[in-house]
Amino acid sequence: MRGCPNRCRFCQARSQYYPLRIRKPDNLCAIAEETYKNTGYDEISLAGLSVSDYPKIEELSSRLMELFKDKGVSLSLPSIKAKSYVGNLSSIIARVKKTGLTFAPEAGSERLRQILAKDFNEDDFFSALRESFKAGYQRVKLYFMIGLPTEKVEDLDAIISFSTKVSELRREVSSRPAVVNISINALIPKPHTPFQWFKMEGPDAIKEKQDYLKKICKNRRLELNFHNRQMSFIEAILSRGDRKLSPVVLQAFKNGAKFDAWSNHFSFDAWSKAFASSGINPEDYISEKSENDRLAWDFIDFGLSKEELLGEFKKIIDM
Ligand code: SF4
Question: How many CB atoms lie within 10 A of CB 303?
């Protein structure tokens, strides 16, 4: 499946891979068999933007398991939507490789999830989780974002209380609570999304929020992981940038910036010096935009109009 049927307002992938295109289970099974024959790999992972939204996910999973059951090949599913899990998928998931469960609530509070337009129902989620623990899963990974529009301290508290509830739920089937890996990224309001007019919170503001979360997270079963805030800052500048950034990119490279997506190679210093020598203020690129601004990416037609995005943006303002 290419594209995604959901409409999460922060998500650039949906617009980048727009429109939604669905592959037939016959084709996918044939590709899986061919790949197995040619590589000998022993695990098949179904990849996509929102795999559990694939309309024939149950049929596909069953057929793949049947095809490979005598070959020692396991099937793994990435982030699963709780709603799908509550349906018939749970019996399939109980049989797939237990590499750990991944869910993306994105925000701890329902209020912020509505702003994100995240299709996430807590009742479905906790039912799904209960089934997963019964099926033998022990670890859960949760993805959250911070720096969201209108975010308050209570919303940060909600990340920890939500994750604690996830961990404690396992006590229903075991004496031990679950280990919960909490991955937290700073929101980057990306082009071609209704969030493109919002500002991004800078590294200092994000650090304050990270420190607060570390302070209130006392539970040993909760493992907090933060994406490097300076990397997020540079990513935001590059993704919201225009042609004036070209000399900065070249200068950063000359200053030693290479393989920046690898945290051990990332040099914030190389970028800071490049900005300083260019006279460009990087903060300008993460600032709020006005509805009347011409945005650097407006000329790219990806299938949805700016008016549609603006309509969604206004809904957030009115919330
Ligand atoms: S965040 Fe995931 S589910 Fe939401 S629109 Fe993007 S790809 Fe789809």
Answer: 11
Per residue in 65-91, pLDDT tens? 889 888 888 887 776 666 666 555 656
Tell me the β-bridge partners of 145: 185
pTM of the model: 0.90
Q: Distance from the CA of 141 to the center of ligand 1, in angstroms?
A: 17
Tens-digit pLDDT profile for residues 96-141: 655 668 889 999 999 999 999 998 999 988 988 888 888 888 889 9
| Ligand 1 atom with least separation from CA of 5 | 8
Tell me the CATH class for 100-236.
alpha beta
Q: State the distance from the centre of ligand 1 to the C-alpha of 24, rounded, in angstroms.
A: 21
User: How many angstroms does the Cα of residue 271 sit away from the middle of ligand 1?
Assistant: 30
